[in-house]
Amino acid sequence: MPVYKAPLRDMKFLLNDVFDYPGHYQTLASGENATPDIVDAILTECGRFCEEVLSPIYQTGDEEGCRLENGEVTTPKGYKEAYDQYVMGGWQGLSAPEEYGGQGLPASMGLFKQEMMGTANWSFSMYPGLSLGAMNTIFLHGSEDQKQTYLVPLTEGRWGGTMCLTEPQCGTDLGQVKTKAEPQADGSYKLTGTKIFISSGDHDLTENIVHIVLARLPDAPKGTRGISLFIVPKFLPAADGSVGERNGVNCGSLEKKMGIKASATCVMNFDGATGYLIGPENEGLECMFTFMNTARIGTAIQGVGPAELSYQWALDYAKERRSMRALSGKKEPDQVADSLIHHADVRRMLLTQKAIAEGGRAMLYYAARLADHMVEAHTVGDDEKAEKYDDKLGFLTPILKGFLTELGNEAANLGVQVFGGHGYIREHGMEQIVRDTRIATLYEGTTGIQALDLLGRKVLLMTQGGAVREFTLKIANFARKHLTNKQLRPMAIELLKLTAQWNLLTVRVMLAARKDRDVVSAAAHDFLMYSGYVTMAYMWLRQSAVATDKLENGGDESDAFYQTKLATAEFYYERLLPRAQAHATSMLSPTRNLMQVEPDNMAFTG
């Protein structure tokens, strides 16, 4: 059975050399204890936990799945034991405030942890991952009493958490939420309704589960302006903070899914369940989405993770599996045939996976720095700074979430292709990566929703193209610095051309949309993918600039490491980046070719 290996060398290259996280942490109050030695120790120990504990139960968890019996959900064999080790290691509170039992480290440390966990075993990582969403919501919007009651056991990992948004009649359009919340004399509320697709809705890993639920008060306005947010625990807390009586919330069924089968995705029924208002009345969406940008960064990990995992396993297989002779002549004359890795087409697939994984990781780590500043600003109550960094993240997160998950799916499928027929067989694990990864382009908003958010809201409506101008100026300034370097010049020139084109495309789409509103929806997907390819190109130039410097002046890694970085960047620019031009052409195509066929004429059947 294949085993995950934490890519610590690449992670440390990005953290220490490309993005200067040691210097970054010195600017944060929460970074005081995030010294290079501490960060290195945390990454190493987390990598060990993922390799030795989470990776071995990845495939077995998929085979067994979750079970619902007598109203209780049981996770696969080994999950409870793994979770207990996770709690004992203090991993849940890594980036949580110290006053509530956490370690108070920067938010980015939690993302690095989540990347390794999600790559080793995405299904497992979703349980503590959903708890983080509940923790963030309570920390920002809960009363001090709610924080003491719920945040402390959540931070310790004794309790789990969920985010209950979706209902049978609505997914992204939360204005259709119907769950009701009736006020009670004691200040609590009785919630009645059904939520679907609730990850970690019920399980046996923790002694209690804290549901963060969207619902409507009796006199609430219609639409999104009439939604409030509530804390609804599975077991009501006792006066001493322990678990009390069972609440009126239960798992009605488990979804039968394509993948992530070891993650309990539940239909949750609220039958007069006792809940407690969190945040102001009718402002539930604002409260729920305060940390949505950081949540989307977390989801973007499921683009990088499968690319990394599938690449690791495909690379090992390509080195061992022998088939035919290389077209340029025998590479292993003592063997019956040459290894797959000597075939150019196999190299194409492997390098595509590598470029996606390492380029995507750089995009995540770039955004994580912004998230650190935003979270710290929220913590100290600096609303102006928090809004500034939230806006920067708001532009990047749909690109990260939409683009990286689409490429993660591509990379996972390429892994199956490298294995050939064996990739289609379950025992090798490659088809599981494909199944598990497919959901990533759907939850937290489909790629189409991310694209509309990027182009329609962040670029056109909110900034009139300003978000693109600001980001491309940063890219262009970086590229100009490297025009005199012979090795980096071709990449720098190409990137400068792309920044100019990105602005031109934005203006052209904006002008076309004034005459035809459908232009925004028609162009959005191509605009997002174009934005993703250019952003990744920026990340590869940044890595190349560091690699070039280290080759000249020495670094912590071998020359081969830095040379491979440069070679991968060259591959990306010459083989993958040209895709951006196809998206540029497509996004300017008129809406007529999409909208002229009448719905009744879309299919003609007997």
Topology:
Elements: H1 8-18, H2 21-25, H3 36-54, H4 58-64, E1 67-69, E2 72-74, H5 79-88, H6 107-120, H7 122-141, H8 144-156, E3 159-164, E4 180-183, E5 189-199, E6 208-215, E7 228-233, E8 235-237, E9 243-246, E10 249-254, E11 265-277, H9 284-288, H10 292-320, H11 344-380, H12 383-419, H13 430-438, H14 447-461, H15 466-480, H16 489-515, H17 518-553, H18 559-576, H19 579-587, H20 592-595
Parallel strand pairs: 3-6
Antiparallel strand pairs: 1-2, 4-5, 5-11, 6-7, 7-11, 8-9, 10-11
Helix pairs in contact: 1-11, 3-6, 6-7, 6-10, 6-11, 7-8, 10-11, 10-12, 10-13, 11-12, 11-17, 11-18, 12-13, 12-14, 12-17, 14-17, 15-16, 16-17, 17-18, 17-19
Domain Acyl-CoA oxidase/dehydrogenase middle: 163-271
Family: Belongs to the acyl-CoA dehydrogenase family.
EC number: 1.3.99.41
Overall geometry: globular
Low-confidence parts, pLDDT < 50 over ≥5 residues? none
Mean pLDDT: 95
Please count the helical segments: 20
Number of domains in the coordinates? Answer: 3
CATH topology of the largest domain: Butyryl-CoA Dehydrogenase, subunit A, domain 2
CATH architectural designation of the largest domain: Beta Barrel
Q: Biggest sheet, open or closed, and with what strands and sense?
A: 7 strands, mixed
Determine Rg (CA atoms, Å).
25 Å
CATH class of the largest domain: Mainly Beta
Report the β-strand fraction as a percent range: 5-15%
Q: Based on DSSP secondary structure assignment, what is the total number of beta strands?
A: 11
Distance between the termini: 48 Å
